[in-house]
Amino acid sequence: MSAAPFxxxxxxxxxxxxxxxxxxxxxxxxAPGEFHCLVGRSGCGKTTLLKLAAGLLQPDAGTVSLQGQAxxxxxxxxxxxxQQPTLLDWLTVLDNVxxxxxxxxxxxxxxxxxxxxxLAQMGLSAYLxxxxxxxxxxxxxxxxxxxxxLLDPPILLMDEPFAALDAITREELxxxxxxxxxxxxxxxxxxxxxxxxxxxxxxxxxxxxxxRIRHDIRVDLPRPRGRDLRYSAAFNAIxxxxxxxxxxxxxx
Length: 252
What we know:
CATH architecture of the largest domain: 3-Layer(aba) Sandwich
Number of strands: 10
Strand order of the largest sheet: 6-7-8-3-9-10
Helix content: 25-40%
Largest sheet: 6 strands, mixed
Strand content: 15-25%
CATH class of the largest domain: Alpha Beta
Distance between the termini: 26 Å
Shape: globular
């Protein structure tokens, strides 16, 4: 018997005032510990659906529930990583990671040790006292991921976090992200334009078009996933299926 959904969206719709519907009757659910990706062209409604999943927006129709409870606002159990790292330049790397706690209370030595451990896992132990302007784009993205994981959220929502990075750095971060999330059992909802990125990371990928889920597929590729998988026939067949769906060929 499959696990009950961790995140469950049923017949969700949303319209910005004065505009056509942005999200239309979407059904989507994520099981505990699964990594789901959403792909689609610009303007298809991906980011709006992610904001609905986060509780940042409330649906005009339908329901969004997290762990069986209706979601009305963002909660401490959700981590966010946006397209830009959104680090505060006047804070050190360590203090940027600690920011979610600092907004609630004074961090303890245990909190600082936790933040330092996350940064060590990201290969940033030598940069604790640096400021964001002293880091590369990839390093800034690593800091943003560490910050999102500080409170050990059961779900992580990510909006094209690697889009601005070079290909090699993006692949390195994909490996680090999937390893950390699988080790923690973190559920992930990840929005991207990149079909190959989605297939490499995800247990399930959906194609969104004009506010609807047009196609979705289980990614039955072995884990852990490594570089060679990207060049396999099975990997490329899934990428081709998703590209055809994005082009409107055979989409459901």
